[in-house]
Amino acid sequence: MSAAIDPITLAVLAGRMEQIADEMDATLFRAAFNPIIAEAHDASHGFYDAESGDTLVQGKSGLPIFVGVMAFAVKAVIDKAAEAGDLADGDIYIFNDAHMGGTHLSDMRLVRPYFRDGELFCYLASVGHWHDVGGAVPGNYNPSATEAFQEAFILPPVKLARAGVIQQDIIDILLRNTRLPQSAMGDLNGQLGALDLGVKRLDELLDEYGAETVSAALSALGDRAETLMRSELSGLPDGRWEAVDYLDNDGITDVALPIQVALEIKGDRMVLDFEGTAPVTAGPVNIAYPTAVATAYVAIKHIFPDLPANAGVMRPIDVRVPDGSLLSAEFPAPVGGYTETILRMIDVIFSAASQAAPDRVVANAYGTINALSIAGKRANGQRWVMFSFYGGGHGGSSESDGLNHGNAPISTATIPPMEILEAAYPIMFRQWALRPDSAGAGAHRGGLGATYEIEVLEENAEAFLFGERGRFAPQGVQGGGTGAMNVFHYEQADGWKTPPLASKMLGIKLTKGQAVRLDTPGGGGYGAASDRDASAVARDVALGYLTPDKATELYGPAWKEVAA
């Protein structure tokens, strides 16, 4: 079928379909109530194959991690519909079960079949991070969870709409299982609106070009993605390279957890084998198999940035995840801290790939989203839950220093602005600044981490932290140095404290005027520090990125002559 469409028409249709997905993204971002979607853009939309659920097209603003996992989510709906035998035009499925659809329970998925002339053509899907979905911890990052039931309300695929008629009882269940029903309802309406728009735009596209031509384009896009991936792999040397890194702990027991990968290239194929990774843990740093495969895709997309967002990219790549490992956890194992684990997966893939293609890979980024929730009640009794994630330094590369205070490489999301958070919640930022001396040394240094200090303005609140990199620093590549580790402090009547498990803690009692502080990691360096130009070191000192003593310790005294 791919041969039936000419290259110009294919390019035009590819752009049109991507534009539809982009418009669906924008529709939700404008309509969502919670800042994690509206400001941070923790959401995604796309089109998916009618039989396999494979990703066909995804918007550019959506999170890359969703490209892979949404294929599993759509396939779960396909299987559910086949079992029931009652799929109809206007149906909409909703669910958040992470073991079926990947990521974690905060991500609410809506999947809608798209029919053309009475025949199923494809699926449309919307996923967004809801602010709160029940569970033991406001915001749902529970570092002490030992089963999924302690993390959030779990919803398997159910019909939110039947032949276009919304099922109010499903909405009633959803709103009864959140601390923030108004926010949840706003986000749900935003996702429904995005799906409605997608259907309208697809109708217009098929009216213009015909279903057969658009179907041929979708098939050709998958074939083209596969061809491009094979071409990229053929340009790399054959071989096998290994890397290992560690999670601090599982939130229950303070024992390091290895994540290990062997990357092998033979001709136009690649194998990513995670044998040697720690087994399923008691705590919530596990991930489900769909998330592991999606993470491999995200890493590959970073290494080969010109490849399209299409499932065809993964056809030449074999992702091997051992049964029983923390990368293939089965229900009801807790998976709420998935972000920390997939970041470490990306780190080890980068570290292995740097040995095969050093010019394509950056050093490790800061490696944690530092999921921080602060919650309480206002004076009028209204509940509030502030959840956000925080930035850090990115790794240096063969071409440049790492980005200062960037967001995690699992996403295109942005850190919510300080002004938005202060306006929405009874908190105040005492500090939001770059963290000096946090960058990994190198010919191209890593990016700087950040310091955030947040004061509570209501009488009482509780804080919950789910982070990483408190025990193991972000690694450099090609001889580069490590970035600074993550440090969390919280203020009490007798002074500042740090968590026993370094990067995870729950139920921190705070009173008005007390604060929490995050000193986030910097990125790893690229290349030997001895190869860094002395004028670049002097510039970093002048800008306050490096203190003079640290500059001399890492790079020697030559910078002083340039500075003088």
Can you walk me through this structure?
The protein is built from 13 helices and 20 strands. The protein has helices at 7-31, 35-38, 65-84, 98-101, 168-176, 181-209, 211-234, 289-303, 338-356, 418-424, 534-543, 548-555, 558-563, and strands at residues 43-48, 55-58, 92-95, 107-116, 119-129, 158-162, 165-166, 239-247, 257-266, 269-273, 317-320, 371-377, 383-388, 427-434, 450-456, 460-466, 487-492, 495-497, 504-511, 515-519. It starts with 6 loop residues before the first helix and ends with a helix.
Write the layout of secondary structure elements.
Layout: H1 7-31, H2 35-38, E1 43-48, E2 55-58, H3 65-84, E3 92-95, H4 98-101, E4 107-116, E5 119-129, E6 158-162, E7 165-166, H5 168-176, H6 181-209, H7 211-234, E8 239-247, E9 257-266, E10 269-273, H8 289-303, E11 317-320, H9 338-356, E12 371-377, E13 383-388, H10 418-424, E14 427-434, E15 450-456, E16 460-466, E17 487-492, E18 495-497, E19 504-511, E20 515-519, H11 534-543, H12 548-555, H13 558-563
Parallel strand pairs: 10-11
Antiparallel strand pairs: 1-2, 1-5, 3-4, 3-6, 4-5, 6-7, 8-9, 9-10, 12-13, 12-16, 14-15, 15-20, 16-19, 17-18, 17-20
Helix pairs in contact: 1-6, 1-7, 3-8, 5-6, 6-7, 8-9
Summarize the entry for a quick read.
The protein is built from 13 helices and 20 strands.
